[in-house]
Amino acid sequence: MVTVKEIAKLAGVSTATVSRVLNNSGGYSEETKQRIVELLDKHNYQMNVVAKSLRTSHSKTIGIIVPDITNEYFATIALAIENYFYPNGYSIYIYNTSEDPKKESLIIRDLESRGVDGLIYISGTMTVPKQVLKKNLPIVCINQREYMTDEFTVVESDNFQGGFIATEELIKQGCRRIVLLRDKRDIVPMNERLQGYREALIKYDIPFDSELVQHITFDAEHAAKCVRSLIQRKISFDGIFACNDLVAMGALYGLRENKIQVGNEVKVVGFDNISIGHYSYPTLTTINQQKEELGEKASEILLQFIEKKEKPSQSKIVLPVTLVKRETT
Amino acid sequence: MVTVKEIAKLAGVSTATVSRVLNNSGGYSEETKQRIVELLDKHNYQMNVVAKSLRTSHSKTIGIIVPDITNEYFATIALAIENYFYPNGYSIYIYNTSEDPKKESLIIRDLESRGVDGLIYISGTMTVPKQVLKKNLPIVCINQREYMTDEFTVVESDNFQGGFIATEELIKQGCRRIVLLRDKRDIVPMNERLQGYREALIKYDIPFDSELVQHITFDAEHAAKCVRSLIQRKISFDGIFACNDLVAMGALYGLRENKIQVGNEVKVVGFDNISIGHYSYPTLTTINQQKEELGEKASEILLQFIEKKEKPSQSKIVLPVTLVKRETT
What we know:
The structure is a homodimer.
Chain A: H1 4-11, H2 15-22, H3 30-42, H4 49-56, E1 61-66, H5 72-85, E2 91-96, H6 101-113, E3 118-122, H7 127-134, E4 139-142, E5 153-157, H8 159-172, E6 178-183, H9 188-203, E7 213-216, H10 220-232, E8 239-242, H11 245-257, E9 267-269, E10 286-288, H12 291-308, E11 316-319, E12 322-324
């Protein structure tokens, strides 16, 4: 088998340069890289990262834990993380929890036994961070479900602000009785969006009616069912703030079934800004979360944490959200 | 640090049982597992898979290469693969190629250097399988873009049949001039869906008109643009077979802009059956691909390949597709 030294000789560069190319660590021209990669290919060079990770105690891997990779919102964040870490020479283990707390615990054990250098934990409970703390594994959380202590760094969207501007948009478009479709679980982002909703009602002197706050199983099917039920029970409303876009899709479906003109009789705002909202009918007004930036910011902090072995100084980074206005308002 | 032997003693089981629990390999009761897991946790046991993989030459990892994890179709397949391998003690590396052939080559080098036991390669070109063959790494492909040789096992949907039944559905609903929206790239699934389309026209004695076969950049935006352009150029049509659901969404959007009544004036069939089609307006008739089954079948074959070190005997497994009838036809 060919060695790094031989490749360096063939390429006419130092062994350090070949190592840097192998580790993707920069400090060489694109042309040099190309030449070295071709030689590595030609001579079928195989670097054994496994052996190397035992020598250096760095495995150059990180783990991502997500609730559901088939939800475009999470997949977009995960892709941004991969795009950040890959050029830095890291590979990504990805795990779906399917919201099963038992599986979450097992995943941590698995990641740890594989010697990952760090962890990005998306939209989970406190269970995992608490376990990880015991084990001194660098972790950055994206979105918090339960309030984290200062021991963890959280990157998240401004959910309060999102709830506020979604509701304000509906009010400005003339709505007075605004249904809030929220996840029935008592989790931080939902509670903060509700706070934003209440704050907007206060600002515009609209009374809060708890009957309009609907706690649902958080998917399109149950959203449609909830809208149907509100109509059957003759609860009047002229606006819906759906706390994510898939739920908004379900709401549109429920309204359509009842021949209610969306945009005229009832206005709707979603949350997340995933691609589905471009192609719904009517197209969906929503709150944009900076999904790529959530992934990138968390990655940047984690990489520093791993490489400088220093806990991040900030415990919370909040990214702003914006209104994306389309046809439903 | 606590050893397996000590844990076994504390749990009152054999060391072999503890090992089996650590490797997730079965052969113990749920209650025993629970007890052992609790002891492992309590004593903060850390198994070093990295060291172990050097001893056994199995890393208990597999790699998945996908074009785009934010497309629900691919994410659903990837999740099915994880759900198959995880209980077998394997972790998953996931890589997005973003359709960049250069990145594909680098990914292979990376996966190989990490000592993965096998690879599932989804909807890519022949480049990677050819590289892998040289290196004796077990691989199973899901969907082929270029025709594979018998050296590789491919699991795919019956694209010809899908094209046929999509077109037949439109014909049965009275369509005579059916637009085919296909990926402009010369790739196998598109060519086979086109063959199915042609076969259905022949069966019902409808002349083939090449003007109706539209080769587009394969996304919703370009589909909408294409529909707009057909209408402007006064090319008459009464049906659209869109070769995936996202493209179908774009087509619905383009028709709506032109105030064309979908389901009456123009009927539409998609392909894939992702969740978006449930919530479009009108809801989308489509061809269901068995996404979970594609992932499971490929996983089953790969696991056998890895553990029995025997090349799969079948080079091609084709899963049937079905029509999901909704409002657009």
